[in-house]
């Protein structure tokens, strides 16, 4: 009997492992970085929600013994809006206000979605995918190339390409984007990167520091600033470790200018001496800041405007580095 019970639980364990490990994925590497990406798939994909772009979910990135990404949320569900990891991006909706309940609107990187009712769009809701578009994925040893093509979605059509690439000879990850408007309507939106970093699984607290190239100040709707978290000159620091369920938020960090030079942030784990520098070739439209007990996220937005027949391109760079642990504990 004991043997049968053991075999049963062994089978369950192995089956669970297969289910967890069976998401479509690809691994890329260069001389100093190894990363894993989950690939988009409507039936078997890790992420099937309707908030974030399906391309570029990165559950793991290792550099010099440091782990930069991982599961920051407690419960996993493929259709829950936040079941993503890594430098995940979200486009603002297009055509939602004009659509009537039951009609469709556009979410770039996801597809054509059904408007549920007359309520305002809410990022945490799941909206039925009416047309997922056509996706192609090409993998190489140092990159993954994603293409998402959508035709006549609420009158909009586009070809969206995204390349997640490791740079040869550098500890650098690059996100290269292009969006071609193949429809008759202009596409006016914005996109941001949520930057779900979990450097060495350090809890959000005094061990984490976020740096900016300008004097940063929280504005708009805020939560936790002046108490759990401080914006002091050009950095954001924590006065204590955040407890489970606690969150920090600012709907608008101020202090940046109109140059792409201000799109330059650093997130550092002061305890382990591991950091990342985030830059772009685009100017910042706005910055939202959000943190919970497991991740601290500067969310820089850029404006996207594409006339019919035109194409826009943009790039985000992630440079990984280490620094002495003695400096990290000062």
Automatic annotation (TrEMBL):
GO terms for molecular function: carbohydrate binding; catalytic activity. Keywords: Calcium. Its cofactor is Ca(2+). It comes from the Bacteria. Signal peptide: none annotated. The keyword Ligase does not apply. InterPro entries: Gal_mutarotase_sf_dom, GH-type_carb-bd. One of its GO terms (biological process) is carbohydrate metabolic process. Transmembrane segments: none annotated. Monomer. This is Uncharacterized protein. It comes from Adhaeribacter arboris.
């Amino acid at each position: 009997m004991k043997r049968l019970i053991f075999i049963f639980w062994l089978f369950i364990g192995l089956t669970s492992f297969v289910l967890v490990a069976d998401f479509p994925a690809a691994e890329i590497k260069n001389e100093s970085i190894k990363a894993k990406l989950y690939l988009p798939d409507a039936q078997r994909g890790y992420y099937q929600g309707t908030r974030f772009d399906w391309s570029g979910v990165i559950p793991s990135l290792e550099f010099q013994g440091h782990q930069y990404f991982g599961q920051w949320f407690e419960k996993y569900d493929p259709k829950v809006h936040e079941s993503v990891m890594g430098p995940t991006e979200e486009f603002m909706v297009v055509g939602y206000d004009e659509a009537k309940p039951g009609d469709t609107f556009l979410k770039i990187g996801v597809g054509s979605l059904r408007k549920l009712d007359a309520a305002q769009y809410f990022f945490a809701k799941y909206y039925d995918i009416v047309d997922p578009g056509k996706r192609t994925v090409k993998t190489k040893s140092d990159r993954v190339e994603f293409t998402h093509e959508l035709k006549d979605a609420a009158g909009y059509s586009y070809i969206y390409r995204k390349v997640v690439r490791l740079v040869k000879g550098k500890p650098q990850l690059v996100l290269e984007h292009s969006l071609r408007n193949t429809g008759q309507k202009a596409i006016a939106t914005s996109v941001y990167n949520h930057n779900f970093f979990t450097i060495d699984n350090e809890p959000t607290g005094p061990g984490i520091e976020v740096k900016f190239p300008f004097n940063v100040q929280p504005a708009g709707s805020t939560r936790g600033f002046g108490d759990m978290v401080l914006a002091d000159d050009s950095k954001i620091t924590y006065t204590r470790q955040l407890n489970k369920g606690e969150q920090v938020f600012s709907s608008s960090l101020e202090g940046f200018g109109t140059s792409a030079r201000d799109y330059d942030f650093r997130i550092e784990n002061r305890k382990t001496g591991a950091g990342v520098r985030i830059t772009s070739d685009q100017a910042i439209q706005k910055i939202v800041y959000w943190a919970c007990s497991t991740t601290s996220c500067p969310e820089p937005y850029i404006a996207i405007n594409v006339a019919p027949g035109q194409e826009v391109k943009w790039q985000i760079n992630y440079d990984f580095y280490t620094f002495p642990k003695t400096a990290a504990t000062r």
